[in-house]
Amino acid sequence: MKNILIVDDSATMRRMVKVSLxxxxxxxxxxxxxGLEALERLAxxxxxxxxxxxxxxxxxGIEVLKFVRGHRTFNSVPVIVLTTRSDxxxxxxxxxxxxxxxxxxxxxxxxxxxxxxxFI
Amino acid sequence: xxxxxxxEQFFSEFIDELYAESDERLELVRxxxxxxxxxxxxxxxxxxLLDALLRHFHTLKGLAGTISLKDAEELxxxxxxxxxxxxxxxxxxxxxxxxxxxxxxxxxxxxIAAHRTQNPLPTITSIMADLTVLVSNxxxxxxxxxxxxxxxxxxxxxxxxxxxxxxxxxxxxERGINVNLIRAHLEEIGTVIQxxxxxxxxxxxxxxxxxxxxxxxxxLFADWCNDHGLTYTLHKTQxxxxxxxxxxxxxxxxHSLKKSPPPSDKHSLSPTITDPLLASSNLVRVxxxxxxxxxxxxxxxxxxRARQANNLNEIKDILPISQWRSLQETNLAIEHQLRDLxxxxxxxxxxxxxxxxxxxxxxIRDIVGDTEKSVNLELSGQETEIxxxxxxxxxxxxxxxxxxxxxxxxxxxxxxxxxxxxxxxxITLRAYTVGDAMIIEVEDDGRGxxxxxxxxxxxxxxxxxxxxxxxxxxxxxxxxxQPGFTTQEQADLTSGRGVGMDVVKNTINDLGxxxxxxxxxxxxxRFTIQLPLTLAxxxxxxVSVGGQRFAVPRLxxxxxIEIEETAITxxxxxxxxxxxxxxxxxxxxxxHFFHLTEEIKPHYHALIVGNTNNTMxxxxxxxxxxxxxxxxxxxxxxxxxxxxxxxxxLGDGQIVLIIDVAALxxxxxx
Lengths: 120, 670
Known about the structure:
The structure holds 2 protein chains of 2 kinds. By secondary structure, chain A is an alpha/beta fold. Helices cover 42% and strands 22% of the residues of chain A. Chain B has 5 domains: 3-136, HPT domain (Four Helix Bundle (Hemerythrin (Met), subunit A)); 160-258 and 269-276, 2-Layer Sandwich (Alpha-Beta Plaits); 288-350; 353-532, Histidine kinase-like ATPase, C-terminal domain (Heat Shock Protein 90), CATH 3.30.565.10; 537-669, CATH 2.40.50.180. Helices cover 41% and strands 22% of the residues of chain B. Chain B has a 6-stranded mixed β-sheet.
């Protein structure tokens, strides 16, 4: 059983991600609506993959990502950043901060599915 | 299935949720833009406000993109750019700027609405040109970058700042104690000015630090903290000593205002500021249709219960009295519980009228624009709650009344000053509840309605038969609400659009409410809207007339009196009047009105209805009792009768017709 943590402040977005991925067998989801909650989940439950939004009210996704990469136990969790379309600069910053993959919204469910399957 | 098709179908399943979320965000944008307006031409802008606006626009951009609204996406992107340039102190917020943002938001709203209703999208060429001009006044660096550490919200210098440390553990999480709960509680203690994670060597390798500003004494939170695994220390108001993973910004009053963001530090974590509006994660969004269904089921239950009560009465003589009594007690208990259930569901549907009122600020600002007018809007009772369905329906009528008040009611500066009025006009929106009804008042201190002018015009177009100088307010309102009636030679742009007074009145009537008018030349105009708090189920008086039963909504009845035949005075044209409590008012006999067989009696009952201007008595034979009725509207044109609002089933399976009191008043007044 693989556990995926979906981090997005929009509940609709989280649900859309879940629906796109539900064809994967042996999978479970954890959700977080803000950065702090996401880090708490990572610390307390085994997470195999994180899908992370950048634009969130309390902690920016980049900061979440940097924190994850600096942590001694969960620093190796693959992180797919799923964010609103932006420029190349943003993509570069995100990948430099340690994102495993960068995808923009609106996303194609099949593409996301393919990508997730590569990491788990 | 092709990928594109698959994607399209995938998104269509979420479309309603996406629309709902856009609406919520637009609401926040509107609110924040109004606050932002106070900072026009000021060198310092509250940073939190800019951050929030940027976030809302960014989310809206994402939502627009998700529903393939390219124009709206570009538009939000450009508005974001402008705000970001302000945030980075490349430009100051100008009057023009705020106008463009407001217009942009309206176009955005229209685009989303048009997309939803599959209507043609509004064009964005001109607004985009405006934005481009605004943005081009800045230096070229325009990249989107991760949000930089935000300075702190306004602080009170007498208060203390405490630092709390929370180390999450599996054991605490099992008890339901997690970072969200901690944060929510700290927000109750005071203002959370910082919330950030910290790497540690112990336990799960993670701790959360919160800085909370509060006037509350330590003793009030000490126990709670011990219980919830929280440690705390008093934080200095001096610059904090830097820790390995963070750079705490110095805490001082200037930080409540905008400062240029410090360069992004690779190892720094942004201090985070919670937005209470977004943090409320214990809310669920429910499809209105489900609530309607719930209400319908309760309606069915109410009818079944009434039927049972009826059956109980029929078997009263057959059953031993003790058994019957116990059945009767259960029946009464069910009646009470049903009422509680109904109220519970009704409460779920209630939303505060405040958001509807807030929108009016926007409208006023929009109409006043560059004209020689100024208007102050006063709101009261924004927290008053009303059925969601009713709020949605009442927005258009309110918009119309407010637009009218601004464009026809409130005078220009010069005219006001020459009359000794304050230069700025005042529009007041008030909401309050009276019993089961909600009252909304729209009042202006403008020039009032020129009744003589309306009467002339009405005579000219044949709405009244004789030329008059005066009209009573009911009649006046009646004329104003005639489809197409206008005293303006030419419908002007602002109030000419959207709905007319006829639609205002019909909408309110459809909701089971009514509207009245008070106006005084030179002093102002007040529209009073009365609405039932909920639809579908209402308390009603069951009356009998000529052997038939009717239901009269309790809400519209002020008083029930007994009248002697001899107390009735007959005027010319067979109009009957009666004097009661020093007032004289007309009577309407339902038996005549509905052409039923008259029962000659020495005395009758009359239901006193209407307000001070149009009181009248509805004469009935008997009052049979008070019941909860489930209102079913009569939509079939063949059975629509003036004076009848709908039908309801009583417990005995019989149908009663529900009297449309507002319509009767109208008919009698004519």
